[in-house]
Amino acid sequence: MKKYLLHFATTMILAGSVHLAYGQKILPNMRPYDQRGLNMFEPPKNDTATFTHLQLKIGAGFTQQFQALRHSNEATPNIVNGVDQNKLITIGNGFNLATANLNLDATLADGIELNVITYLSSRHHNDTWVKGGYLQIDKLSFLHNQTIDHLMNNVRFRVGDFEINYGDAHFRRTDNGQAIQNPFVGNYIMDAFMTAISGEAYVMSKGWIGMIGVAGSQVNTTVTNPSGRGPAIYGKLGFDKQLTPDFRFRLTGSIYTNRKSPGNQLYNGDRGGSRYYLVMENTQATISNNAWSGEYNPQFSNHVTSIMINPFIQYRGLVFFGTYEHAQGRTGAETSNRKADQLVGDLLYYFGPKQNIYLGVRYDWVKGELPGISQAVNIDRVQAALGWYIAPTVLLKAEYVNQRYHDYPTNNINYGGQFHGLMLEGTVGF
């Protein structure tokens, strides 16, 4: 009963706050959740804003898909207790579970902002639970020190339990119900995303950006097993500039390293789940227990070091975004590192009176070594998308996807594997 009352109260709050949330201007130093946040990475510093009183912005993300995918494989049977573990579950056309986020942003004091995001419903967890939140500091006016005030013109601090800023790809991915800034339906095959208790320090000046962060290595933190865990260190260095009115260029390089963890979650930290429901899963799979269908997890749970390079080029309505990622690591049972590489390219063209319609194509290729498999495997995917921003807060998109699996052993469910078909998605974000 309490769960239903909570859902009812949340619905009433959202229904009554739509005008408030979108009617407000963007809070200083915060990334908007609608089309205005498209192609935005770290939100720029706004030091001209003056604080008069506490401001609260209530928003939400809501997403629904229609899935028409088919999958197949050529794996040899693997019979366990009379059940073939390599037989694929039968899937057909239908609607996926709707996902939703609740977004709360607040300006607490001059240059101090708060962000809290709650997953109202997700593929992996049907119940309401908090994704994370952070305190962002862009000014230290309360210290009344001119030297510090001048320094803070180019400095930002962020602390909390939140989505770490490793690489640029996470700014363009779907985050459960928040899908309006992802031009495609699915995220990357090897999806670097996690929330953790973290602290980040930024320096931003004349288009240059530098960041260093320290974080825990797990979503669920613990005080036990102190000898078996250590902090993750990560950073980013890049340049982002609107060079002419028509041409913008950005290039960043990022690194993440964690030398010791009982269960690092850089590549399996998405608690929302993938968009391609039950593809390449066996007949005993369920939507929630097998929530990451179609993704590749390198299983670097004990040790991981990863680098990501991201170029972004925009000329008028033409956008290119690329990712090169190299990671190496191991599980706690292994003594030597394995490797995984990913190469992704997005090419999009926005047109229409407000550049509110787009065509896009993505190629995603992953090659990596897995525990128990002697040779490296590789996966490739092509996504072609058509999108229409009906309003800055509403996006409709259609995607054709084709993903193929190579070099898996014959007794693996992914041997000769492929899924392909059409995805339709409608999403709201504000």
TrEMBL record:
It comes from the Bacteria. This is Phosphate-selective porin O and P. It comes from Thermoflavifilum thermophilum.
